[in-house]
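Q: What residues go here?
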């Protein structure tokens, strides 16, 4: 599996290297040859095997030989210092790294047993199955209604307006936003608050009934109240979706995730239940990071 593609300028949001120079002694602690903990689960929704990513030919890999499973109806939180490869790996899961000039992805990623990097894989179809919520809310310059309607329309998921109205109401309800916007669906989405815009983006993502939702620091631009609402929403959404989220907040990872993966300088050091990672980490790098010795 190899991809080298040229498209947008999103590389500014994706490239997590060069590495931070504030890690001190942690830079000299070797990552394990194999991931500590329990990186695999029974009946996974997605699997990654030996996944490596580099942004230039011959350059050092941004992530190396990542092996893990994404469980069904679970939240997997990915933590680690800036530049460790969390977002790079996240964006492999719906091929967002395809948009980065010169990016090369090696290894295998399966969704329900199908290789998402196979030549016959339609990217639009993949991204309807694996949705994405970005770090900052990115509503379209359209009405609230048209933001949520966009996906069902382009994917042909509804046959008439009554069906579309139903999908929009259900999606906004599941995102905890319906009661706040039901009377103004025709108004611009950009007029919503930051927290409301992020919930709108979540509603837009779930309107196309994905199997997996990716979240790249979904609360980093929000205030504590809006963050709490999003975290409660994540807890509800996992009843129907598999969720993979990048977060720099270890307290958030403890609150909302079932499993936690710790990345360090491009390596997946440890993955286990969130309780085990935070209360009984196996590797020194994990212990040092969660205890605040670096990061």
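A:
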């Amino acid at each position: 599996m190899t991809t080298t593609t040229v498209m947008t300028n999103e590389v500014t949001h994706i490239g997590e290297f060069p590495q931070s120079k504030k890690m001190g002694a942690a830079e000299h602690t070797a990552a394990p040859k194999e991931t500590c903990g329990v990186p695999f689960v029974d009946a996974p929704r997605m699997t990654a095997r030996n996944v490596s990513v580099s942004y230039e030919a011959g350059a050092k890999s941004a992530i190396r030989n990542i092996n893990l499973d994404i469980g069904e109806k679970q939240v997997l939180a990915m933590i680690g210092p800036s530049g460790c490869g969390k977002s790079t790996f996240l964006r492999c899961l719906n091929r967002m790294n395809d948009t980065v000039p010169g990016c090369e992805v090696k290894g295998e990623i399966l969704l329900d047993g199908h290789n998402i990097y196979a030549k016959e894989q339609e990217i639009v179809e993949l991204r309807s199955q694996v949705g994405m919520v970005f770090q900052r809310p990115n509503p379209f310059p359209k009405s609230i209604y048209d933001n949520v309607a966009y996906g069902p329309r382009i994917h042909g998921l509804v046959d008439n307006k009554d069906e579309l109205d139903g999908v929009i109401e259900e999606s906004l309800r599941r995102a905890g936003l319906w009661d706040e916007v039901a009377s103004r669906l025709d108004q611009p989405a950009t007029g919503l608050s930051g927290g409301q815009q992020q919930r709108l983006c979540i509603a837009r993502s779930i309107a196309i009934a994905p199997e997996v939702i990716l979240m790249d620091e979904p609360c980093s631009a929000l205030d504590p109240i809006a963050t709490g609402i999003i975290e409660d929403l994540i807890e509800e959404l996992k009843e129907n979706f598999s969720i993979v989220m990048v977060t720099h907040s270890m307290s958030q990872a403890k609150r909302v995730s079932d499993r936690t993966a710790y990345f360090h300088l491009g390596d997946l050091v440890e993955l286990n239940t969130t309780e085990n990672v935070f209360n009984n980490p196996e590797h020194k790098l994990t212990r040092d990071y969660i205890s605040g010795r670096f990061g």
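A: Context that may help when evaluating the design: The longest helix spans residues 161-174. The chain has one domain: 36-291.
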